[in-house]
Write a structure and sequence with these properties.
The chain has 10 helices and 10 strands. It is of the alpha/beta class. α1 packs across α2 and α2 packs parallel to α3. It starts with 5 loop residues before the first strand and ends in a 20-residue tail after the last helix. The structure holds NADP nicotinamide-adenine-dinucleotide phosphate (NAP). NADP nicotinamide-adenine-dinucleotide phosphate binds next to α9.
Length: 276
């Protein structure tokens, strides 16, 4: 398998495809499998309950910690400074590591906690060496602007939903303009696009799977790192194997044209911001 390319910004270098671990439960074996298959970017969160499995998987894989780009997130319940610090400590204990490579605020506050307090806590975690880089997830552009104003450290990433059924042109343009990597979650739309006729046609013509075509469409746009999840070792391998073919401009356009107004999946009522 060819080497996995990386994306770099603000001194942060991130392998362009990562392994997602939400809903995987005790994922130690799957994480070890992913690492043995060549993944070097693992995405978890305090909220997923997968951190202990991720830590155990890293341990048993034998892959040196220094080779792994490890991401976790602080949940919206823990955005007060003291709660934030406690959550980071718990995550590090769960993961059995001294630091993570990327720490995200998982969702913006629903409790009107001042942005300055949360961004101060996020930046402090970086300044204390508990994370090498920081970012936000599920923020709209107005919230990112506010976060950047209050954060003494650069925000290197925005993590958000992205797949062919969801147009994210505005936030992707914003990220490019401001030197932020966009980490694409739900890149396979949690399986909703596997019957799509356009994707089926392109996949057949290319002798690739639909998952590979979709992940290729994402990585080929540059500046975007998809983090697909799978519980199946064959698919885990397949999802990383997307760097040995190129989609034509026409294929890219046809996939972009699949975006639809009801394409968004992660949209929790009362918690989601007004999306761009
Ligand atoms: N920041 C946030 O708020 C947020 C929100 C959602 C997700 N995330 C992160 O993003 C990661 C990915 O998103 P997701 O887990 O929601 O969904 P996803 O990666 O879009 O889709 C996962 C689904 O696709 C299937 N699948 C994976 N590879 C496949 C392949 N090659 N062929 C056929 N089916 C395949 C999996 O089934 P099998 O297991 O059977 O293969 C699973 O049902 C998460 O695990 C999490 O780390 C972050």
């Amino acid at each position: 398998m060819p080497a996995i390319p990386s994306l770099t910004t603000h001194g942060c270098t991130m392998p362009q495809v990562g392994f997602g671990t939400s809903q995987l439960g005790d994922c130690a074996d799957l994480v070890a499998t992913a690492l043995k298959l060549g993944y070097r970017h693992i995405d978890t969160a305090w909220k997923y309950g997968s951190e202990k499995g991720v830590g155990a998987g890293i341990h048993t894989s034998g892959v040196p910690r220094s080779e792994i780009f490890l991401v976790t997130k602080v949940s919206h319940e823990n955005l007060r400074a003291a709660d934030f610090a406690r959550s980071v400590d718990e995550s590090l204990r769960n993961l059995q590591v001294d630091y993570v490579d990327m720490l995200h605020v998982h969702w913006p506050t629903i409790d009107k906690i001042p942005m300055a307090e949360t961004m101060g806590a996020l930046a402090k975690a970086k300044q204390q060496g508990l994370t090498r880089h920081i970012g936000v997830a599920n923020f709209n552009i107005a919230l990112i602007e506010e976060a950047r104003r209050h954060c003494p450290e650069p925000l290197a990433t925005l993590q958000g939903e992205y797949h062919p059924y969801l147009d994210q042109t505005k936030v992707l343009d914003y990220c490019r303009k401001h030197g932020m990597i966009f980490t694409a979650y739900c890149p396979l739309a949690r399986g909703r696009l596997f019957q799509d006729p356009v994707l089926t046609e392109i996949a057949q013509a290319r002798s690739k799977t639909i998952a590979q075509v979709v992940l290729r469409w994402i990585v080929q746009q540059g500046n975007i790192a998809p983090i697909p999840r799978s519980s199946n070792p064959e698919r885990i391998a397949q999802n990383l194997d997307v760097f040995n073919f190129t989609l034509s401009d026409d294929e890219m356009k046809r996939i972009h044209a699949l975006a639809r107004p009801d394409g968004r999946i992660a949209n929790p009522a009362g918690r989601a911001p007004a999306w761009d």
